User: Which sequence fits this backbone?
DNA sequence: TGCAGTGTATTAAGACTATAAGACACCGAT
DNA sequence: ATCGGTGTCTTATAGTCTTAATACACTGCA
């Protein structure tokens, strides 16, 4: 069993709890801490650990399932799902990430970081996955 | 008057508008883009520009005044009360944008977008800010 | 003195977030 | 079949966020 818990809530951030959970699941999947086909902690388990309501966790899980990142296994729980790579045209996928990129550009401007500095910081976050 | 507007709202971020405004005012003050004793844009001016309610801007201003960052001048508006802090080292500024970049990388991974595709989508967003 | 501009108070309404307690269908194992 | 586990549905309640329309005291200026 994993010794350290995977999730944490930042109460002062202003971001809804279910959104924070979604972001962290996504990050863990990307980082490989939640491998493919791995079962996620149960809603009651996370709710107990974070002292929040199970329905809040359920809301995060449901939206992640809608996004195709995880899947529901009846009577079992939620499982990390293989990315259905390429179902959507590139243009649509780009549109989905655009709001995030706008935040990046705004924050970079705020901090006085150039485009190249941002790219330099962003590049190592992309994992090597052999040929694309 | 400055040609470029100082504030921007990200509707998809989940962060309340008044919190976004507070963060941006604070960043501008710290960076010196809003110097000491400078008058801030009026609540109605910002509300018009961002297509939001004046009371939402007022809420941000009131909380910033409570924090001592700005002060109210009756009949005039809000004035910057805090001195600009020195620009942080690049390393610290990079740290501040890192969580956002991790989110970008994770989302890109989920969508099956490569590093180059992300950069291609990000670059034009920097050009809108003028030369760096 | 008017007048336009400043932030703010008020009231009302709607959407969203989170909690609580209970119930359900489903699954695996005893 | 029973039991404990899974996610989810339902109902209700409370709080926050945002908008809208109106009004007020205050200030600088013509």
Assistant:
């Amino acid at each position: 069993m994993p010794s350290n818990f995977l999730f944490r809530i930042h109460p002062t951030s202003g971001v809804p709890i279910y959104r924070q959970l979604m972001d962290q699941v996504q990050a863990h999947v990307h980082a490989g801490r939640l491998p493919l086909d791995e079962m996620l902690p149960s809603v009651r388990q996370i709710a107990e650990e974070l002292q929040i309501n199970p329905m809040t966790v359920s809301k995060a899980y449901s939206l992640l399932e809608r996004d195709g990142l995880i899947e529901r296994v009846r009577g079992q729980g939620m499982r990390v799902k293989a990315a259905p790579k390429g179902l959507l045209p590139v243009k649509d996928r780009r549109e989905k990430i655009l709001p995030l990129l706008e935040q990046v550009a705004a924050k970079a401007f705020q901090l006085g970081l150039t485009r190249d500095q941002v790219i330099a910081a962003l590049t190592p976050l992309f994992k090597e996955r052999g040929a694309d």
User: Anything to note?
Assistant: Residues 125 and 131 of chain B are 12 Å apart (CA to CA).
